[in-house]
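Exercise 3.2. Students should predict the tertiary structure of the chain below and write it as structure tokens, then compare their answer with the key that follows.

Predict this chain's 3D structure.
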Amino acid sequence: MITPNGEIEHTVHADTHVDPLGAVRAPDDPDCDVYLTGTVFLDIIFTGLDSAPVRGTESWARGMGSSPGGIANMATALARLGLHTSLAAAFGDDHYGEYCWDALEQGEGIDLSRSRTVPGWHSPVTVSMAYEGERTMVSHGHEAPPPEGALPECPPRARAAVAALTPGRRDEWIARATRHGARIFADVGWDDSGRWDLAGLADLEHCEAFLPNAEEAMRYTRTDCPRAAARVLADRVPVAVVTLGSEGAYAVDGASGETAEVPAIAVEALDPTGAGDVFVAGYVTGTLAGWPLADRLAFAGLTAALSVQEFGGSLSAPGWSEIAAWWQYVQACSDQDPAALRRYAFLEELLPAPSRPWPLRRAVPTIGFGRSG
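Answer key:
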């Protein structure tokens, strides 16, 4: 659809024709593959900036888009990989909240039956400015008021749940999800207190896998090497996965002693927003599908690499059509290392026939235009 300003606008639906868990599904499985809860932001992304904004001046961006952000980044990434995803979140009853709800439920097929609309509460907003492969963000929002009356049971019975651990705090829903049989995958944010106390991550005891970045892992373990940090973390959690940025990722299986390291795919990074969420979504997908540790890392790294080539958080998450188009493209490149190609050959049985050549570009939608006549 062409909008009044000449930009292409469309709704991207999840790639439902690929089910990565098809081989492991059974009649008594839970309806939900992955459960998440958290804050949904309305992300407004400015692109095409030549440099960071300068104090006292006005900067003009050559592009702008908007999309659901925050926990919606992870939910969208999981849904586009074919996992049945349930999200419990509060939504404002303003236009931003209505847009985010519709984009997630109708556009991505995410189950919002455990979410709620809060009258009179405005949606949290993040403005992201992308330049030089990095981004600067400014956010505003208030905590949603507690619900009035009964809510649907949270969490539902699910194969897995993804949690963001908070230093010094337990989230009761994580323990409940574990008791209901969910496998817990967790990451962690920056510790503003500066304590970096691993014992303060109380919910780590419920986790099957912990996926911090290199800086976080080294600070929590008091080590100066991310690989050493992963080995320390593997004493506390069954699988420790440390992301190494442009170097890829390293993982240790604490039970078997297996280690795996997969280099990153070299790409032109336009906007890293949401790349960590996409990595976790890829790793969760591979784990639930029963793939070997190295394949899980490779797939997570691939999905994250594809995401940073697009602007925005949830909008940049790749689906199977993007992955299939990339795979067809790299196999046709004469300068590809055959050993590097073999690293991703495990995907061939899953990938659909590409419908369009690489690179695929997702249109960046606006919140919407009124129509006259």
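Discussion points: Confidence is low (pLDDT under 50) at residues 1-14. Residues 293-307 form the longest helix (15 residues).
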